[in-house]
Amino acid sequence: MYQRTERKLPVTEEVLFKSITYFDYKNIGLVNDSDTLKNQISTLCNGISFTQMPFDMIYADESSAHFKNVAKDQIHNNSMLLIKGIYNSKENVENWKGIKKMEQVRITVDLFYCGIVFFRKEQAKEHFRIRI
Fold first, then answer.
1. Does residue 57 contact residue 97 with C-beta atoms inside 8 Å?
2. Contact (Cβ atoms closer than 8 angstroms) between residue 11 and residue 84
3. Which portions of the chain are predicted below pLDDT 70?
4. N or C: which end of the chain has fewer CB within 10 A?
5. Alpha-carbon span 58 to 69, nearest angstrom
6. At what angle do helices 35-44 and 11-23 cross, to 10 degrees?
7. Alpha-carbon distance values, 36 to 16, 30, 40, 83, 94 (Å)
8. Burial letters 31-40, b for 16+ CB under 10 A, else e
9. What one-character-per-residue DSSP string does 40-72 give?
10. Is the Cβ–Cβ distance between 66 and 32 less than 8 Å?
11. Buried/exposed code over 68-82 (b: 16+ C-beta within 10 A; e: otherwise)
12. Which pLDDT score is estimated for 79?
């Protein structure tokens, strides 16, 4: 039987923290530089840098349109981009569709609350939808 658990954090932040831990990311970029989020990440995850590029993970808060401002020198082949609120507005939905079509984007994972993007050049281009 499926049981719903009480969440202590918003879904996207749970995905953020679990991804940092699972992939052992050390260099995190925040598109909307939030001191509160930086403090949470630093408290929950040891040895995190927010300034060293290329970033292992980039977190784009609220609008996926911010991805267009991420320079190629900020990411590497194994970088992950986590975008919050891909369905919060029509503009975000269109931006998410555009991101999925970008040549350097190889894997996208639609989690409804957020979207995950991977850039691995050797990976076949695929799109996944997972309900969390």
1. no
2. no
3. 1-7, 62-71
4. N
5. 12
6. 50
7. 14, 11, 6, 18, 29
8. beeeeebeee
9. HHHHHSTT-BSSPSSEEEEEE-S-GGGGGG--G
10. yes
11. eebeeeebeeebbbb
12. 95
What per-residue confidence (pLDDT) applies to 66? 54
The per-residue DSSP string of the chain comes to: ---PPPPSS-HHHHHHHHHHHHHT--BEEESS--HHHHHHHHHHSTT-BSSPSSEEEEEE-S-GGGGGG--GGGEEEEEEEEEE-TTSSHHHHHHHHHHHH-TT--EEEE-SSEEEEE--TTSPPEEEE---
Give the pTM: 0.88
Amino acid type, 78: N
The confidence score (pLDDT) of residue 56 equals 97
Residue 117 near residue 108, CB atoms below 8 Å: yes
At 128, list the tokens. Answer: 């996944």
C-alpha distances in angstroms, 22 versus 16, 72, 73, 96?
10, 24, 24, 24
